[in-house]
Structure formats: structure tokens, C-alpha cells
# Entry
Amino acid sequence: GPEFAARRRLDGARVLLVDDVVTTGATVSAAARALRSAGAAEVRVVAAARTPPSRRRVHSALPATGSETWK
# Structure
């Protein structure tokens, strides 16, 4: 899957991660992991569109609309 690394420490930061389309969730999950590993206190994801939860590889309790917190 995708791999990301933060360029600097984000200790205590609240991050908004913007994506156009969330399909399996693997990309936003990997990005959120990298941000959390760099010290981000919270990572929120907003996307213009996404696939239904049954088709995603990464699952969480996701609202039908709005932003999501990824760990």
C-alpha cells in the first residue's frame, strides 16, 4: 500500500487532510498514520466523494456526511 512520511514534527497539531475521492481508505489511512507518527494530536479527513463502507479496506465508524477522524 501507499507509504508517507512527515517532513517535520507535528507535536500536538490538529491536521485537516483533504482528498478528492476516498475509495478503499488505504491512502488516507497511511497518510493519517504518518501524521500521527509525527506527533499530530488529531487528523481529520474531508473528501469530495467516497465509496460505500462495504467496499473500503479500512473501516471505522464513519458518518454519512461531514469529516472523519482517522487513527
Notes: The two ends are 17 Å apart (CA to CA). The CA atoms of residues 21 and 49 lie 5 Å apart.
